[in-house]
Amino acid sequence: MEFGEVVRRRRMVRNYDPDRPVADEVRERILENGLRAPSGGFSQGWAFLTLEGDDRERYWRIAAENPDEKYVEWVTGLRRAPLLILAFAHKDAYLDRYAEPDKGRTDRDERRWAAPYWYVDTGMAVLLMLQTVVDEGLGACFFGAPAAKVGRLLEEFGVPDGFDLVGVLSVGHRAPDRRSPSLKRGRRTTAEVVHRGHWGRHAV
């Protein structure tokens, strides 16, 4: 698929065919392409946990426990995805990397960072996975785990301290799905969000 087509066709898919698993080789391509993302100092401070079969059900037993009616409706289609990829950011990898001699810092002071690039870079890795999913003819949705359940999820899956759960990527073969009502907001144009040379300048 041409890259432009991948970009245009990417959207969040919230319903899947539960009877069609993601092929092993496709799963591995998705993961490997994600690891091609850039990272500050080549720190690669990310980690990913794949959940399939019973492990996937372990996630949902915690994440969907005692939800409200709106949440039940929202996750019904997501729960049919045969593959979940949990994305984690590892801040210490960046603080350690930039304290190495070639970076010229002598400490791990987090205040030196203008933005938390451990989250930024993990997000870029996920985006490459989303694009790979489209290129493979599948569907995916990136969503957040319920904040109140994150601690239990980390414990359930043995995640070490220092790894922050950024979000979850559901992957599978698309099933009939309704478009997100949020799309009614419309896509903002470059004229609205791109500033040229000075914040007050929008015109090309």
Automatic annotation (TrEMBL):
Keyword Oxidoreductase tagged: yes
Domain of life: Bacteria
Cited InterPro entries: Nitroreductase (IPR029479), Nitroreductase-like (IPR000415), Nitroreductase/BluB (IPR050627)
Keyword Oxidoreductase among record annotations: yes
MF terms in GO: oxidoreductase activity
Boundaries of every Nitroreductase domain copy: 7-173
Keywords (A to Z) from UniProt: Flavoprotein, FMN, Oxidoreductase
Name of protein: Nitroreductase family protein
Top-level taxonomy: Bacteria, Bacillati, Actinomycetota, Actinomycetes, Propionibacteriales
